[in-house]
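User: I'm curious what two different proteins look like when written out as structure tokens. Can you demonstrate?

Assistant: Sure. I'll show them one after the other, since each token string lines up with its own sequence. Here's the first protein:
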Amino acid sequence: MSMKKFLTVTAIAAVAGLALAGCAGPRDAGDTAEEGSGFEQESLIGVALPSKTSENWVLAGDLFVNGLEEAGFEADVQYAGATNPVKDQQDQISAMITNGAKVIVVGAADGGQLNTQVQAAADSGAVVIAYDRLILNTENVDYYVAYDNFEVGELQGQALLEGMKAKKPEGPWNIELFSGSSDDANSAVFFDGAMSVLEPMIESGDLNVVSGQTDIKQTATAGWEAENAQSRMETLLTGFYGTEELDGVLSPNDTLARAIITAAEQAGKPIPTVTGQDSEVESVKSIMADKQYSTINKDTRALVAEAIEMVQSLQAGDDVTVNDEESYDNGVKVVPANLLPPEIVTKENAAESYADDDTLGPLTQ
């Protein structure tokens, strides 16, 4: 992993200091057996997921329920509500601890507001696995399983350039930047990955952010909500693109990409090159219809399977597979991570990328 990636993940935690990385076996704490001894297979496994803001979170919940039960565990899979997701998730994790969960898998609604709950998990002897989103500013997260999110951003930045060049071979190109919700630790990682590709070209003048809004605070989309992205896009088009042509938009995921495209269509503007992420059905359709340019294939089935495999290793008392013990500093410790490789998808390679996906594959034929 690059030093820039390491610094990017450290920055999102906003806490100085660095602790040693965790070991690759179960935590030695509370009632959990010492490293290497595991626990009973029928044990309760908790899974705390954020609000159902995307298709992939919904799919993940179903996959966790089925996969954990098939593996012989008792599964408690909970979603935070949309109104007060942080409080909901805090209460759900607390209940899982009370009910004796041996492992708690957490897709954080807000990775910076779970310190009390993961401390309680540590005190109970439960192992905490951060799923997709890093849990910040605590030593009590044992593992992180995710796609390589900095690489996701890099791929989005590269796709944006390739899509614009395909439409307009010679620059400069006018672009606008969108990022995810500020309470999601991944948002900064995606954005910084993309900017590692785009910023040199902004500095050289090959890319022009007409609005001047290049800071992540200016580009953030509260709650990852489509209406917030659409509203901001409408404001950008009205304020800066009366006569200027917009060539491309960096969108961090598919839900926001479709909202950005809708804003352009409703304003009577040509659809710019728009990136995305998550391989949502409607966005795959949009890619095949030459509207959205790209998405990122982060197969939720593979990610959930990796998380369940980690649980099985813990249950058996075996070492947990990790492939990165350097990059993911949460502000207090470097969290041992198991990272999967993301894949950029455009119309050109969609059929190949989704060949074994019964839902998405037929859309690309």
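Here's a second, unrelated protein for contrast:
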Amino acid sequence: MTVEKGVDWGRRGPLPEDGIVVADDAEARAVVEAARRSGEPPPPLGLTGGDLCRTLGGRGDVARLRSEQAVTFTVDLGSVLVDGRHHWFVAHLVARRSWWWGRVVAVMNAQWLGDWDLGPRAHPGDGLLDVSDGELSIRDRLKARSRLPTGTHVPHPGIRTRRVSAWQTELDPALDVWLDGTRIGRARNLSVRVEPDALTVVV
């Protein structure tokens, strides 16, 4: 259920028997993509690490996942056409050549990318994706980098932010595209949308 103001989100309950334990966002994405490409719904996932796990307050405790202390959430998925090829992501999409020069696009379903609070307003159960898109000078990048761990790099006049259910952009020049930390190739066009309440996860 998409999160609503004043309503508890998540419920106590262990990972079902058919659930799959994954160690990070890349493993989670691989399971989701395999299911989607076979026309099946993704199985429930037990998260022991990664940025989505951290966003949900996961502890990385495998034993907890099978216990009554576990918490089950229904979360959104990111869906993206990368030059017409369909992919999914659980935590984030990043398009860039370098963190230090050129355009950087980040589409966040989770709040975190490693140690960076890259999506301070992102929530994986609100039916929206948080997009940051900009091209900063080296000086501004250094300033922004020091603020990324606390999420205070935005607002910034050189970074366009929006919260969207769908969004598309042309990448000129083409940029490398990373989904949940895995580089999938270089692309010129992205068409992103959210799939609300599409995945069950347990932490």
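A detail about the second structure: The helical segments are 25-37, 51-55, 62-65, 138-147.
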